[in-house]
Amino acid sequence: MKKKTYITRTVKVACFLLTMLLTLSFLQGYALRRLDHHTSRFKGYYRQPNGAVDVVLLGASEVYTGFSAAHAYEKFGFTSYPYASESITADGTLLALKEIVRTQSPKLVIIEPNAYLYKREKNETNDAHIHKLVDNVPLSSCKWDYIRSHTQGDETYEYLFPLIKYHGMWADYPRQGKKVLNAIVQDVRGAFYLKGFRTTVGKFLAKEKVLNQQILTENKTEKLNPNFEKKLRSLLDYCKAQKLNVVFLRTPHLVIKDTYGRYKRSCRAAEIVAEYGYDYLNLEHEWDKTGIDLQNDFYNYDHLNIYGTMKLTDYLGNILQTKYNIGKHTFSDGQQEEWDTSAKYFNRLYRHCDELMRHTKPAVPEEDPIRFDEDIDTFRMLDQQ
Amino acid sequence: MLFNITYTSLNFIFFVLGTMLVYFLFPAKKYKWTVLLAASLFFYAVAGYKFAFFILFTTATTYLIGLWLERVAANAKKRLKENKTAWSRDEKKAYKNKIKIQKRLIMTLALVVNFGILAFLKYYNFFAGSLNDLLGGFGFGFSVPTLTLFLPLGISFYTFQSMGYIVDVYREKTDAQKNPFKLLLFVSFFPQIVQGPISIYDQLAHQLFEPHDFDFTRMKHGMELILWGFCKKLLIADRAAIAINTVTADYGAFGGTTLTFTVLLYALQLYADFSGGIDISRGVAEIFGINMIDNFKRPYFSRSINEYWRRWHISLGAWLKNYLFYPVAMSNVFLNAGKKMKNSRFGKTAAGAHVSKVLPTAVASLIVFLIVGIWHGADWKYVAFGVWNGMIIMLSILLQPLFDSWTEKLHIRRTSAWFIVFQILRTFIVVLVGYVFDVAPSFGDGMATIGKFFTNQNFGIFGEELGTLGLWGSDYLILLIGIAVIFTCSVIQERHPGTTIRAMLDQKPFILRFALLYFGIVSVLIFGIYGSGYNAADFVYMQF
To answer: Which pTM does this prediction carry?
Structure first.
């Protein structure tokens, strides 16, 4: 009788704990978490088996809007993936690099140094920008080290159990419901065909004087913020210590008076990177080589539209192939089909964006522009093409 | 605070789980209480290590004076026994009186020292400020300096508890504790240090020192109580606090109807916050096999303000009754005053006979509630809160015959449902008026609010202001559901006073219990006010 009671009680407690665990996983994984293009991008990255990615691009939003892994695959045959989040911080960049080293063995890592070019350090403590990266990194020794060194007190728990931070999102329903559905559909499908790519429809009309012609003929520099220089050197030291094959890439921007300082700091960063023997592809300076059209290829000062993406991907892909010997990927695990499908979807996306933009003139961006990324609406549209 | 270890933090949950593990696996049964002591000291060190000296000092003085009192009593008994035949009756009486005075002096020493520390830390600046205002009013240039003082964690609660022990030893109701560490555990027991309940030594101590083995039902009940506490605190109290804090931050900007609503909300917040905290404390203690006194018995169902104070913060009420009310009401001064009045001309009348009979009780009540008010905080608004409650109780005692005669003349049946509802509402309104002084930033604001109750009611403005209080419609819905759940549980508890809802739930099917626990936990996880997305509030009674 006593034994029976123990067994019954144990089964009941186990059932309850299991139900709670499942509920917590669902709440934390889907229902009450920030679900956006970052979630899809990082999920897509982490489901790639080790060795599946030849080139990883690390950085801020310039990376996932300016480079299409699917298009690069179709044209050059190598596989790549953007490990990037909006306004990534300098500390976040180091965490991201460590994660890349932990999870993949890429032939080349391309680092976009935007995080080190800010004049002030405000971005380093921007909660939203930090969480956009860290929340999407699965728990690992790298993430744990990052959390331990960057948080204290209850904040630590918020990184370990994001539900503590985001449980108030119940107020976002029913809007959040669609995002949850999207995330579930993605996970069920199991493939992330756009490979972390995101684009905004529109041609940008710059209202301020653009200095891109001017900077073509000059190479002025400006000191980095001392802390950012220190962090950049730490990153470079880490690259050296890990014997990583790294290239730095500054994507093209529409440089104006306000961002001219940032441009000059980028030129200084190039000098520092060179000290360590790494290449710095300064396409902000040599933007003309990419064939980018300042009138038609941007959707705002800092980001390219899909026309710009095609040009930058073509240019970069060519360099990677010729200068860095990144050849065609050899598939051994049945992944090729997924990459072929990716290329097919990207082509459809390009055609659709082209249809939307072809006859439009550069304009001031709308408040709520049309965006395409790895969500169900995008794929519903692409499947109808 | 070294790190956040408040009762609603994850750290506290981990801390309790760790303590449970060590306590139940501790091999030396006889010394299991040392695990609780170590945990209590750890908790206190984390939560308020800077002020640990004060609790250690109180424990040390309580310990030594307790032993001293016991030794004096033992020596006296021994001497009386030795001189049983040698001393005359008068000599024995004189000796007993001498010992009584000696013991009283020793007890007074403990009370003065420990309440002195509490009074100094809590009230020095209040009295200095009030004195300076007074001196300034009379044109004196001299002023008493104010000091930067901090209140050690739980000082009110542990001082009351340890001084209760001293009085009990003095009254020879309990033996003095010989082991200073056991006394330290009684004073610092972590589930009760933050906001009580204020336990009586005889009721709590032996439970702390006895070894308790792991008991599934007890752990389940303890966790259910903790969950209920979390629901009250995180779903209701802290949600209501958002609106209350918005109003108190800009008190003068809100109309009378919003202020009325705020006071109502405060009644909800205070009950949910304080009783929720106590539920967490009791639940944690229950897991360790320790039953602590229930501090609340549905106070808003009270039919008189007297009854309200017997149902609200029961342990403080009991403490004050035992150690303050009776000594004051039964003191020679009060008894003689009553007798004098009885023998006066007024005392010969019917009203006079009643007044002279109840006067000691009535005045003692006023004094007790004045102290309750001051205990709540060093501010004139708290004095007003105490005086209001004391005055109502005093008047209700003095005018009882008048009310009885009205009830009789109006042919009101005291047991009728309508009359009971009337009494409950009447008491609730009296309680709310007292709360006005709690909510208002100052005594003046409190008086102004009461004025606004009568002159500034405007539902149109209230509708506009409601949206600016920091809560959404869904928050108000959660509050309403919370009220409905608390009300339902309270009605069940009122109807079944001999048992607990947890014990009743044990008789229900597994699936129902499963669902209730599941929805309780999930509700707290989803709708609770915690984390950086919200600005969760401290327990209200922590400040007292």
So the answer is: 0.86
